[in-house]
Amino acid sequence: SQACLSALEGLRLGLPRPPEGAPLALGGGPPGDPYLLANLLAELCLTEVGWAVENIGPNTPWPSLGKAVRARKPRLIWISCSYLPDPEAFLAGYATLHAEAVRAGAALAVGGRALTEDVRSHMGYSHHGDRLANLVEFARGLRTSQP
Questions:
Q1: Mean pLDDT in the chain?
Q2: Alpha helices of 23-131 — where are they, by DSSP H?
Q3: Residue 118, phi then psi, degrees to nearest 5
Q4: d(CA 68, CA 77)
Q5: Which of 46, 65, 76, 78 is 20 to 30 Å from the Cα of 94, by its Cα?
Q6: DSSP letters along 5-33, please?
Q7: Could you tell me which of 63, 16, 15, 9 has the C-alpha nearest to residue 36?
Q8: pLDDT of residue 146
Q9: 31, 46, 140: which is closest to 81 by C-alpha?
């Protein structure tokens, strides 16, 4: 993981800055999910397609994610779920973030191997993807439809 993290950090340094007025994407991982790489990959992919990106990081408390949404007003929120120690607690916390996204008028994209069909059936979201390519396609569509 450390070798991959170092390589991705190097790639991040080579990406151009987002254009002036680029829409903001904000995201991270839920409480209990310690995985760094998926969020960093999401950050790099979204940056590459012209988004201003704030990666909050893994294992982030729901109230902190909600506070970031209220303060930063992103157009896109992503949540990467590689591991869910307690799916019931995840769903309860996620519902608060979903409500924040709706209030903010932000699209909410979710993904990750921990989001089984059973878990997703209890969630509201704008987009679910099994691969980063799905997130990129969704984000490109949002940029195209930007007012």
A1: 92
A2: 37-48, 62-72, 87-104, 117-120
A3: -65, -45
A4: 10
A5: 46
A6: HHHHHHHHHHSPPPPTTPPEEEEE--TT-
A7: 9
A8: 60
A9: 31
